[in-house]
Records
---
Amino acid sequence: MHPPHRLEFRGLTKRFGPVAAVTGLTFDVEPGRVTGFLGPNGSGKTTTLRMLLGLVAPDAGTARIGGRGYRDLPEPARTVGAVLEASNFHPARTGRDHLRVYADMLGAPAARIELVLALTGIADAAHRKAGGYSTGMRQRLNLATALLGDPPVLVLDEPTNGLDPEGIAWLRRLLRDLAAEGRTVLVASHVLSEAERLVDDVVVMHRGELLTAGALDALTADGTGLEQAFLRLTGAAA
Amino acid sequence: MNRLVRAELRRLFSTPLWRWGPPVAVLSGGALTATAVLVGPEHFDPPMPGMDTEAGVRLVISMIGLTVLAPALFGALAVTSEYRHRTITYTFLFAPRRHRVLAAKLAAYALAGNGYGLIVAVSAAAALYGGAAARGVDVGAPVGTVIGLLASLAAAMTVYTVIGVGVGALLRDQTATLAVLGAYLYMVEHLLVLIPGVGAVYPFLPGGATAALTQASLMGEAAVEVTGSAATLLPPALGAAVLLAYAVLAAGAAVLLPMRRDVT
C-alpha cells in the first residue's frame, strides 16, 4: 500500500448554471480516521467528491490527494478507491467479469479479484450477472471495485444505501479496519444516526457551503447527539 | 498488449452482445450476396448487368456497402453503453486521462470491426462463387478483382466501426446515436443522391466514398432511374482516402470530446 494521503480541499467552487452547487469549500481529511461528510441531499457532497476525483471540473479552487490532483496521481486507482453510485454495472456482465475489466485497467492480477470478492462477501455470486444483484450486493460489488487497487484512500458516497442492518454493521467494521491500517476514509452520508456510529471526524455541508469540520467528539461534546448538533448548526445557518 | 486495450476487449467480450456480430456479418456478406447472385442482377427491376460481366459482379458486391449501419451501430455502443449503464464513472476513475480510454476503445473496436469485415468478405466470396456455380454462370470478374473489392469493403467495415465510436462519443445517448446513424445512412444520404445538384457532394459523403471502392452503387443506379443523371463516383483510391478521413475525424472527435465534459 502507498503511504498515507491527506485530502485537501481549498476554496472549491462549482456552479451548474444558476445553481451554486459548492461555494468556497475548504477543509482537510486526515489519514487513519473515518471522516463523515454530512449534509442533507442536495447540499453539494456528491459534486465535491466528483471534483476531488476529476469527474467534474471545479470553477475555482483545488482538491488534492497527498498534494496532487486526481488526474496527476501516478496511479490514481491504486491511490483512491471510490464508490459514487449505487449501480455502475452493465447488467449483462457478471460480477467477476466487471472486476476483471477494471483489474485489466489497473494491471492487477486475478488473485486480487478473488481477494476483494472474498473480502466483500460476494464470491458466491461472482458468476452471476450484475443485473440480478440486490441493492446490497451491488454496494458490495462497488466496494470490491474500489478495493481492487488496495488504495490508501477510500471515498464512498452513501455506501449504506440498500444495505440491511447486518450489511451496515459489516461495512462499519470494514471501514474501521481500513482506517486502522492508516487509510484515509471519507464517507458521505445524509443518514446521521448511522454516521454517528461510524465516524471519527465530521465535515458538515449545507447549501453548498461548509458549516463545520472537526472531531465528532468535539461537535457532540455538550452531550447531544450528532443529529441535534446538525440541526443546531443548520438552524443557525438558515 | 496495452492494459486499456485489453480491458476494452474484455469489456466487449464479457457481455452477450458481440455474439450477434458473426451472424449479422454472414447475413450482410453471405446471405445478401447469395440472394443477389441466385436471383441474378439481370432479373432485377430495372434489369442490371448480369453476373457474367464485371459490372454485374461489382454491383452485387457493392450491395454489401448498404449494410455498413451494422458496424457503425456496433462501434457506437463503445461509448454510449458506458453512459447508459453508468460504467463510465468507474472507467474515468480508473483512467482519468480520458483520451487514453477513448484511444483504447478505438483500437479495440477497430480490431473487432476488422474481424467483422473479414467474416463479411469471406462469407460473401463463398456466396459469390457458390451461387454462381449453383446457377451455372461464370463470375465475370477476375479473382484478383473480386478479392480486392471484398478486401476494400472489409476495410470499410472497420472504418464505419470507428465512425460509430466517434458519433457515440459525440452524442453519448444510446437511442439518439442509433437514431442519428440510422437516419443518416438510410435516409439523408439517399435523399441527397436524388436531389439534382446536391448530388454533386454525394461522392464525398461516406456512402459515396464506399460506393467508390467498388465503382458501383445500387443507389446510383436508382438515381439514374429517377433523375436521369448518375452521380459520378471518385476513383477507388480517392474514395478510400475520403473514408479514411472520416475515420480520422471520428477518432479525433472521440478522443477530444470527453476531455472537459463533467461526469455528473
---
Amino acid sequence: MTGSLSALAASAATDDHQILTLVLFSVFVAATLAVTAWAGRRRHGSAEEFYAGGRLFSPLENGFAIAGDYMSAASFLGISGLIALFGYDGLLYSVGFLVAWLLVLFLVAELVRNCGRFTLADVVAARMRRRPVRIAAGVSSVTVSVLYLVAQMVGAGSLVALLLGGTGQAARTWTVVGVGALMVFYVICGGMRATTWIQIIKAVLLMGGAIALTVLVLLRFHADPGTLLTAAAQRSGHGADFLAPGLKYGGSWTARLDFLSLGLALVLGTAGLPHILSRFYTVPTARAARRSVVWSIGLIGGFYLMTIVLGFGAAAVLGTDAVRAANPAGNTAVPLLALDLGGGPDSTGGTILFAVVAAVAFATILAVVAGITLASSASVAHDLYGALRRGGRAERGAASPERGAASREVAVARIAAACVGAVAIGLALLAQDLNVAFLVGLAFAVAASANLPVLLYALFWRRFTTRGAVWSVYGGLLPALVLVVLSPIVSGSSAAIFPGLDFQLFPLENPGLVSIPLGFLFGWLGTVTSAEAPDAAARHAETEVRALTGAGAA
Amino acid sequence: MEKHDGRPAGAVRLDAPWYDTPASGRGDQGAAGQEDGGVPAQRAAGRPDADDTEHGTVGAAAEDGPDLSWPTLPAQRADAPGEPTHADVYLTVQRSAAFQEVRRRYRSFVVPATALFLTWYLAYVIAAVTAPGLMARQVMGPLNVAMLAGLGQFVTTFVLTWAYARHARLRRDRAALDLRWETQEMTGGNIR
C-alpha cells in the first residue's frame, strides 16, 4: 500500500502536471509583472509612495493584503501536512497563528498606525533618543525579516523539487535564485503599491484554492465532519489518539516544554513581525487599520479552519503513512490530496487540481517573499541608514530634512532590497536542508522576544527610557539567537545542521519560552537603572495622545 | 518646532488622513445620530472649561456620544502672545477629561479582553501538556475535549474581534476624532 502511494507521489511529477503547473505559474508571474509595471507607472519616488503605497488603500484591500502576507506556504502546505501526520498536535499552529491576531487588533494595529510612519522603529524612537533606538529596532527587524525570508525561500526550493520532479540540486538552486530575482524586481519597481496588489491577488487565489479543496473533501465524506474525523483517526493508524494531544509533543518533558515554547512564540510573535506592522501604514487612518485587521481575521480564521479540514482530509483520504512516505515533513500532503480528489493520478481532473494547487503554492511563496523584502528594505533605509547617516544631526528632532533626503532614502531602500534579496538567496542556498516550519517558528520567536516587548513598553509604559528600549531589543534578540545556536537544531543530534559537532547546551528547539521573558525583563531592568529624561512626561503625553486620537498622524 | 521629523508641514493635507471619516458611525445609525446632533451643539455653546470633570463621567446613557469636555490650554497661554509649544499642547490634551475618558474606555475594554484571551489560550496550551488524559476525553462522536477547545479558540477569537470593533466604533471613534481635530488645531496643523 505504501508502495503504490509513493508511486502515486512519483507520478505526480509526470510531464502533464509539470507543464500545466508551469503554465499556470507563468500566468501568475505575468499578471504580477503587469501589476508591477502599472503600479510603477505613477511613481513619484516619494517615501510615502514607496514604503506605504500612498496610504490610500481601503480596509478591504488591506485586509486581503494582510491575509496574503500572513498565509505563507508554510501554513498552506506545512500546517495541513503536520495535521495529516500528527493530528491534533498539528492543530496548535492553526490556533496560535489565529489567536495572535487578537493581540495585534487590541494593542498594536491602531496605535502603531497613529504613532509611526513606516516602520516599527518609528513608534519606539518617537519617545526616545533616536539614534540608538532606531539602530536597535532596525537590526532586530532586519534579523527577523531575513529569517522569515530564508524560511520561505527554502520552502520554494524544496517545493519545486517535490512538485516539478526536479529532485536535482540544479532545479532547486535555480528556483531559489529565480524567486529571489523576481521578488527584488517587484519591490524595486513597484514598491508598496505593487506588493500590496500582488498580496491581494495571491490571497484571492489561495482562498479560492483552499475553498475548492475543502468543499471536495467534505463532499467525499457526505458533508459530515464527524465521518471525516473518524475516517482520519482510522487511516492514521493511531485511532482515537490521533485526535488527542501528545503524538508529536507528548512523552518527555523536554518535548512538552517545546510545545509550550512554540505556543508562546506563535501567539506573541505576530505582533512583532515587521512586514505585518508595515501593512498598517498603507491605510489612511487608525480606524481603517482596525477594519483591515477585522477583515484579515475573518479571512485568516476561515483559512486556518480549512487547513484543519485539509489536514484531516489528507489523513483520511491518503492515509498518514502515504503522506509520510511522499515527504517526511508532510509538505506534499495537500498537493497529493488534490490529485486524489480530482480523480486520481491519471485523470484530467486530478492533473488540473494538482497543477492549480502547485501554482497557488508558488504564488504564495513569491508574494510573501516580496512583502518581507519590502519591509526589511524599509528597515535598512529608513532606520539604519537614516540613523547612521544623519543620526547625529537628527538626534532629538533637529530641523526638518529637505525633500532630497527622502528621495535619497528611497534610492537607498531600492539598493537595500537588492542586497537583502542577495543575502536571502545566499542563506537559502546554504540552508536548503533545514526544516521550513522550524525556521518560521524561529522567526516568530525572535520577533516576540526582540520586537514585541519594546513595542508594548513604548506604547503603554510612561516611565520607559532609551536605555530600556535598547536593552529590551538586544536582551530579547541575542538570547533568542544564542539559544538557537546551542539548541539540538544546530548540533548534537542526528537531524542537526552540524550532526558531527556537539555544542548543544539548550534542550529546546524553540527559544521563546526563555527569550521572550528575557526581552521583557531587560526592558524593565534598563528602564529602572536609568534616569528619566527631563522631558519624558511630555514625550509620553505626545505618544499617548497621538496613539489614541491619531492627532498628527502621518 | 522641536519635533519636526522630516516632512513639510503641509504634507498631511495631501495624505488626507481622515479620508474615511464620513463612514464613521455607519451601521449604527441610532448612536451616530445622537452624536452628530449633540456634539456641534455643545461646541457652539462654548467650551465648558470649569466643569470638565463632571463631563468626564458619562451618565446613564453611556452608549451615546462622546465625552463633551474639550481640552483647553492653560489660561496664561491664552493671554500670552505666541504659540504654545508642542509639549504644552500634548500635556494639556493628555490631562483633559475628554482624553482621559477615551483612554479609560479603551483600557476598560482591552485590558480585561487581553487578559481573558491570553489566559484562555495559555490554559489550552498548558492543558495539552499537563492533562492529556482530560483533553482526550470523548465528548460527542469523534470530538474530544481537545478538539472542542481548539474550535472554541476560533469561536472566541471571532467573537472578541466583533466585540472590540463594535466597542471602538460606538464608544471611542467619535470622541477620538474630535480630540484629533482639537489637538491639531492647537498645534497649528503642525505635525512632527
